[in-house]
Amino acid sequence: MKKLLLLFPCVLITAALFPQEIRIDELKKHITYLSSDELQGRRTSSEGEKKSALYIQQQFRMAHLQPKGTQGYIFEFSFKKNPDPHDTITVNLPERKGINVVGFLNNEVEYTVIIGAHHDHLGLGNDKNSLDANSEGKIHNGADDNASGVAGVIELANYFSNNNRKEKFNFLFICFSGEELGLIGSKKFCENPTIDFSKVNYMLNMDMIGRLSDSTKKLVIYGVGTSPDFVPLIDNLQTELSIKKDSAGIGPSDQTSFYLKNIPVLHFFTGQHSDYHKPGDDVEKINFNGEKQVLELIIRVIEETEQLPKLVFTPTKNSEETKTAFKVTLGIMPDYIFEGKGVRADGVTDGKPAGKAGLKPGDIIIQLGEFSVSNMQDYMKALSSFNKGDSTKVKVLRENKEVTMEVLFNNNK
After folding, report:
1. CA torsion 380→383→387→393, rounded to 10°?
2. Would the pLDDT of 11 be above 50?
3. How far apart are CA 239 and CA 399, in angstroms?
4. 391/145 Cα distance (integer angstroms)
5. What is the distance between the alpha carbons of residues 398 and 361, in angstroms, rounded to a whole number?
6. What is the pLDDT of residue 38?
7. How far apart are alpha carbons 119 and 107 in whole angstroms?
């Protein structure tokens, strides 16, 4: 008995000397539940997504985060979205609801770091966004996309909440709904944030961080051009990971919504694979040790920024069609949840045809050349008809007035 009493204080001292660590067993627990058949693929607005939100809320509460949604931890929003991309009717569609989950770690300092990931996925393939040939009725569990990112958010929340050191940032942890339908949840949050965005230092997004290759160790980090401090900071990190940097702030995940609010962003991604947006994205294929390495790198990035002043935001050159077969790009970030007629520009890239022609964020493209533009499909069809060196007119609605501009497609990226 005396021996135990002597050892017990030593255990406490030893625990206090070492910070909280990323726990592989907890990553496995989170991803296994979130990608289980019970949640039926976590389609936005589904019962499975509600279960996902409740699970994340419980984990945030256990990590001692303050509720920072609009109703406790919950930030609910409404939207309309036609599951058929070829059907332009949205007026008579039933209203759907999405659930963001938001928790705040208040360290009573000036600046906040936002750490996020989306928790929705494709459900049973009902929204026409599966890449499986016969998708409807098949559960798309989304273990990598994006239960892996959600698990990362939860574990980082535990790390920074239980870390035995004085943190120099507050942290907002947020899991978004509606990402698979066009970044809806992050956009809704950025339109009505529950914290002061002027006090946000930067935003870190995790989307598909669960398939790190043990042979290549390749990690892609997008958004390194959104602040001049990111590239030298990342280049100076000593790591076994092979890091590929991409400067663009705009991309097909939730960091885009924050970039468009002039917040520096980084997006972490371990790469595309054959199970992307298919029923085969299951927990058995997750590299848990690899995800732990990614999260440890994110912690180091955060710690390095502690030594710096508030990061300066810099706009980047982005192309909204980098993964398409288009010969040209206009240089806009479309608003994927715009419900009116036309294509609304959420962002306009400097130096690209749209910017040079005078388009502004908020402009609604209603005609491109001889093509009338009622929806995204019209826009893409029109864009595909142009070649480098072509010029045409673009007609937009700006504050309910028609404005026509001359566009020159003098670039192809």
Report:
1. 180
2. no
3. 50
4. 40
5. 10
6. 98
7. 26
- Joined tokens for residue 381: 């069809």
Q: Which residue has the tokens 């100076």?
A: 236
Q: Say if residues 277 and 122 touch (Cβ distance below 8 Å).
A: yes
E strands, 240-342, are: 242-246, 265-269, 332-334
Rounded alpha-carbon distances, angstroms, from residue 306 to 152, 164, 302, 332: 20, 16, 7, 34
Element (H, E) at 136: none
Burial of residue 150 (number of CB atoms within 10 Å: 0-12, 13-18, 19+): buried
Q: Half-sphere exposure of 215 toward its Cβ, with a 13 Å CA cutoff?
A: 0
Say how far apart CA 218 and CA 78 lie, in whole Å: 38
- Whether this prediction's pTM lies above 0.85 is answered by no
Percent helix, strand and coil across the chain, each to the nearest 5: 30, 20, 45
With CA atoms as reference, report the closest residue to 207 among 251, 253, 248: 253
Whether cis (ω within 30° of 0) applies to the bond prior to 146 is yes
Q: How many residues does the structure list for the chain?
A: 413
pLDDT in tens, 182-206: 899 999 999 999 999 999 999 999 9
Residue 294's nearest CA partner among 193, 135, 161, 148 is: 148
Contacts of 280 (CB under 8 A, 6+ apart): 274
Give the Cα separation of 155 and 275 in Å (integer). 25
